[in-house]
Amino acid sequence: MSSAAPLPTVMVIPTGIGCELGGYAGDAIPAARLLAAASGCLITHPNVMNAAALYWSDPRIHYVEGSSLDRFAAGELALRPVRRQRIGLLLDAGIEPELRQRHLQVADGCRASLGLEIGPVVDTDQPLAVSLSLGASGISWGRLGCPEALLRAGAQLKAAGATAIAVVARFPEDPGSEALAAYRQGSGVDALAGAEAVISHLLSQELGLPCAHAPALSPLPLDPDLDPRAAGEELGYTFLACVLVGLSRAPDLLTAGQARAGDLQIEQVGAVVAPAGALGGAAVLAAAERGIPVIAVHNPCLLQVDAHALGLEVLNAASYSEAAGLLLALREGISPAALRRPL
User: Fold this and answer.
1) 280 DSSP assignment
2) Which of 13, 15, 76, 243 has the most CB atoms within 10 Å of its CB?
3) Residue range of the domain that includes 296
4) Helix, strand, coil: what percent of the chain each, to 5?
5) What's the pLDDT tens digit per position in 16-37?
6) Backbone phi, then psi, for 166, in 5-degree steps?
7) Residue 265: what are its φ and ψ, rounded to 5°?
8) Within 13 Å, how many C-alpha atoms sit on residue 67's CB side?
9) Residues 114, 141 share a domain
10) In this structure, are 308 and 162 located in the same domain?
């Protein structure tokens, strides 16, 4: 274990672009745990940490909604670590009664078994009407038919004392689709991810609170050929447990002017880790503009927005294991160039 001070590091794996590692239910958690150990402080987003019925708590990992992470990287927000959050539960009025009860039971289970503070529970005043689509490149996207209903319910939860919000929206489903079958067997894109990002981005930007989303779906029939990376989504009736655990210690979001000693700010960040083909996101570009080292990891996806296309100087890593080694070098003050031959 390094004796050097922590090197706060941002880890980004964009959602809905079919990343080989990080494109499934929490399959990037082992990489996140490794980078957290190497850096001593990892700031990442729900797409990396959410694993449906599975989850992993680590005080070195800070769970930050994607648009808030972008604003943090731009210097607009600071992050304040907390011991716990009071999680308001926002349920889509379009969820059927039995499926709604399943989600309430997950909340009860997390209260009883994990000691989380959850409540109040608010239903939207009309269905959110989520729709899904795929872009020409195959990247997943989605729309929200009634965004005002989402914001009204979120404001109600905030007024009632919630300090973080877990959203459950009813998603359309097509259990016989070829795309779903391909995803469950280890290829293709998570068709839900793009719409999930729209929901959490909208709510967090409006309320200034940590937010994350879990889709409400009917259980799928057993698939004996299921890819291990998709297995986390098959273990229960909902995807809510990981969201509640992630939000339970998500850092508070503060404007940069409110920051005080002990808060995390972009000036403290020592590196950003992202897939080599997905470097065009706001967080990566904002960090690169500040001269923060970018570690570009070989992690194939549908995008080809690489360092060459953007004119960026990066540290290339063949895997997240190699990225962890580069983080350790930076943390210990060792020039990464000194580790390569020829010098």
Assistant:
1) -
2) 243
3) 9-81+253-339
4) 35, 20, 45
5) 899 999 998 899 999 999 999 9
6) -100, 125
7) -130, 160
8) 18
9) yes
10) no
3-state SS, residue 274: strand
Alpha carbons 203 and 154: distance in angstroms, whole number: 7
Predicted local confidence at residue 312, as pLDDT: 97
The CA distance from 88 to 85, in Å, is: 9
The conformation of residue 146, written as its DSSP 8-state character, comes to -
* Tens of pLDDT, residues 258-291: 999 999 999 999 999 999 999 999 999 999 999 9
CB atoms inside a 10 Å sphere around CB 107: 22
Helices marked H in the chain — which ranges? 29-39, 46-49, 66-73, 97-114, 147-159, 178-184, 193-207, 240-248, 282-289, 307-310, 320-331
Whether 258 and 119 map to the same domain: the answer is no
Strands 140-144 and 9-11: unpaired
Split into its structural domains, the chain has a count of 2
What is the pTM assigned to this prediction?
A: 0.94
The token pair at 143 is: 């729309």
Tell which residue, 138, 232, 239, 234, has the closest CA to residue 190: 138
User: Looking at 177, 210, 242, which one is the last position of a domain?
Assistant: 242
| CATH number of the domain to which 171 belongs | 3.40.50
Residue in the block written with tokens 């960090």: 287
Three-state secondary structure call for residue 138: coil
Q: Which tokens hold the place of 103?
A: 């989600």
Size of the chain, expressed as the number of residues it contains: 343
- C-alpha 128/C-alpha 93 separation (Å) is 7
